[in-house]
Specification:
Length: 142
């Protein structure tokens, strides 16, 4: 099964110049913990609720801080034609719960979450991803 068959296609994004308050509001309204950051149509990063709390609030930065100041730039992605098992392994290795999905042209076409894998794909794929995500890890990336 391809990841395009299980991913969410309606993805909210923010620009690097928007405020973290706006990003947090989008997260609240979308009931998600991360949002892709696009500049001129290109994916340039991800911002998470943890980025806002740990990189922002803990360092004394306010709600008007630009997304670019707190986002993670090295984004692990999936391709829409990747196999679900491949993406589950990638999520496990990167210890992330969500991956942006790009098409062959490098355009953002969706996002896949651990929940998408467990609802739509095999329990094996979701279990594989969860094992790595739950393992003690290093520095948070996305």
């Amino acid at each position: 099964m391809k990841i395009r068959d299980v991913m969410t296609t309606e993805v909210q994004t923010v620009s690097p110049d928007q405020t973290v308050k706006e990003a947090a509001s989008f997260m609240l309204n979308s009931d998600t913990g991360s949002i892709p950051v696009r500049d001129g149509g290109q994916l340039i990063g991800m911002i998470t609720d943890r980025d806002i709390a740990v990189r922002g609030v803990a360092e004394g930065l306010g709600p008007e801080t630009a997304v670019r100041e707190l986002m993670s730039e090295d984004v692990v992605c999936a391709r829409d034609d990747d196999e679900v098992s491949t993406v589950a392994r990638r999520m496990s290795e990167a210890q992330v719960r969500r991956l942006p999905v790009l098409n062959a042209d490098g355009n953002l076409v969706g996002i896949v979450s651990l929940g998408d894998l467990s609802r739509e794909a095999s329990d094996v794929a979701a279990s594989r991803a969860l094992e790595g995500i739950s393992a003690a890890g290093g520095q948070h990336q996305q």
